[in-house]
Amino acid sequence: ALVTSAYARKFTVTNNCEYTVWPAMYTDPNVGPSVPDHVTGWEAAAGSTEEFEVPDDWKAGRIWGRTECDFSTNPGPTSCVTGGCNGGLECDPNTGTGVPPVTVAEWTLEGDDRQD
């Protein structure tokens, strides 16, 4: 029997900076029910790599880096100099989209006509 997994794609986030960054991830809940089984924000030391699987049909996904964060006093969108989000270290799954200035990587998997 052929067995397939709904989590068929591996994402790798590598911090190539010489300083700590705090990657964040967001899925638009209005686009589809599939979300990665991974935290929505984490600390990445210089040179570190984080790998995780995402659903094959993850729609409207985005990942971005946050810099110079301090979540101890203000776990909101201004807790980072760049890319802050609602929720603090782990971005709110409904509103944690990333506050400018920020550069995001965005994609749609298994889109119309099965185009990624």
Automatic annotation (TrEMBL):
Pfam families: Thaumatin. Disulfide bonds join C69-C80, C85-C91. Keywords: Disulfide bond. SUPFAM superfamilies: Osmotin, thaumatin-like protein. Transmembrane segments: none annotated. It comes from the Eukaryota. PROSITE patterns: THAUMATIN_2 (PS51367). SMART domains: THN (SM00205). InterPro entries: Osmotin/thaumatin-like_sf, Thaumatin. This is Osmotin, thaumatin-like protein. It comes from Cylindrobasidium torrendii FP15055 ss-10.
